[in-house]
Design a protein that fits this description.
The protein is α+β, with helices and mostly antiparallel strands. Helices cover 40% and strands 18% of the residues. Strands 1-4-5-9-8-7-6 form a seven-stranded mixed β-sheet, sandwiched between helices. Bound molecules: adenosine-5'-[phenylalaninyl-phosphate].
Length: 354
């Protein structure tokens, strides 16, 4: 058992509990599930007992994760028990009042319960994993803003009005001239002004919207995780090392990757970090537009104008920033070929993913 494998094992156990609960017919069935998954001889109890074999430094993290999963499982089972008790007591009453605020099963005993116990959306699951990895690397997570002003989306990022690069982020606007933000970089100057002091290590996760021709790898709505690192003497090799360490931890293996120059007005120099397409092993297919590579991260050394805007003197401090495409990385890790599956709410996809 390691920090890397524990999330998967716990997710598999939680899924098994949900599957079993979807098949129960009586209170006794639920009690049986409870003793199987939380009882003295359950896998969870065994996991807790085997903590003593885990390296001392990993013990608190793994212990906390197992305890958290145990609490969640206990609460799902409690909910199932209370629904079943309600149902059984209602079945005994020939005449009963209708409680319009109750789940609809409660009022109609002919409709089977527990057919749709939900699970975490694959994107949320992976956001949590990514934030865990960045937190272990010393970055503090922040949540992005979905509606933003022109200033933070463009001006603060070295893109004054009429700057041609503004076209790279083709946006929507509200009637009040606010922008559903097209990238999480809108948070760069906000976070710099908020944290004020170096060393500054922050990651910001958020939803982005673009006026995009939707295809297998382009959504009109998608997620990014932005990263910021500012201190004295930060170098490009620090940046590449940090991004590679994250990518390898996320995929749990050494990912074949390459770096090519990229242009973003808020960094100098700018790079694009690409990972080999897992669907064709780099041979070229429709998912990677026959290039063999998927662009995963845009990054670069923060431009002096942006540092200044955030309150850091570029003569003293340097830093790097990146914006990674969360959906693309989730697709790559889970073999999902079309980004639209992540938003289609198709229950068959949601039940089969992860
Ligand atoms: C940006 O959005 C820059 N803000 C990234 C950045 C941050 C650069 C900090 C430098 C410093 P870009 O437009 O390339 O860059 O998008 C970054 C990543 O978001 C892409 O690599 C891709 O993985 C993902 N992405 C972009 N557009 C879409 C889309 N329509 N659908 C899904 N993912 C997308």
């Amino acid at each position: 058992m390691t920090i890397k494998t524990i999330d998967r094992s716990l997710a598999a156990i939680t899924k098994q509990v949900a599957t079993k609960l979807s098949q129960v017919k009586t209170l006794e069935d639920i009690y049986a599930v409870r003793s199987e998954f939380t009882g003295k001889t359950s896998v969870l109890t065994q996991l807790l007992q085997s903590l003593k074999d885990v390296p001392t430094e990993d013990r608190p993290t793994i212990g906390a994760k197992v305890n958290q999963a145990k609490k969640e499982i206990e609460s799902i089972i409690e909910r199932a028990l209370s629904l079943m008790m309600n149902r059984e007591s209602l079945l005994k009453d020939e005449v009963r009042d209708i409680d319009v605020s109750a789940p609809f099963h409660t009022n109609n005993s002919k409709i089977p319960d527990f057919t749709g116990i939900g699970s975490m959306h694959p994107l949320q699951y992976e956001i949590n994993r990514m934030l865990d990895i960045f937190t272990t690397m010393g970055f503090t997570p922040f949540e992005g803003r979905e509606l933003e002003t022109d200033y933070y989306v463009f001006d603060s990022l070295n893109m004054p009005k009429e700057h041609p690069a503004r076209q790279n982020w083709d946006t929507f606007r509200t009637e009040d001239n606010l922008i559903p933000t097209p990238h999480t970089s809108n948070m760069q100057v906000r976070v710099m002004r908020h944290l004020k002091a170096a060393p500054l290590r922050a990651v910001i996760y958020g939803r982005c919207s673009r006026n995009e021709a939707v295809d297998a790898v382009h959504g009109h709505t998608f997620y990014q995780i932005e990263g910021l690192y500012i201190d004295k003497g930060v170098s490009i090799s620090n940046m590449i090392g940090t991004i590679s360490a994250f990518v390898n931890a996320f995929f749990d293996k050494n990912v074949t990757s390459k770096i090519q120059p990229g242009y973003f007005p808020f960094v100098e120099p700018g790079i694009e970090y690409l990972g080999q397409c897992p669907f064709c092993d780099g041979k070229g297919c429709s998912s990677c537009k026959h290039t063999g590579w998927l662009e995963l991260v845009g990054a670069g050394m923060i431009h002096p104008n942006v540092l200044r805007e955030g309150g850091f003197d570029p003569a003293v401090y340097s830093g790097f920033a990146w914006g990674l495409g969360l959906d693309r990385m989730v697709m790559q890790r889970n073999g999902i070929q079309d980004i639209r599956s992540l938003f289609a709410s198709d229950i068959r996809f949601l039940q089969s993913s992860l």
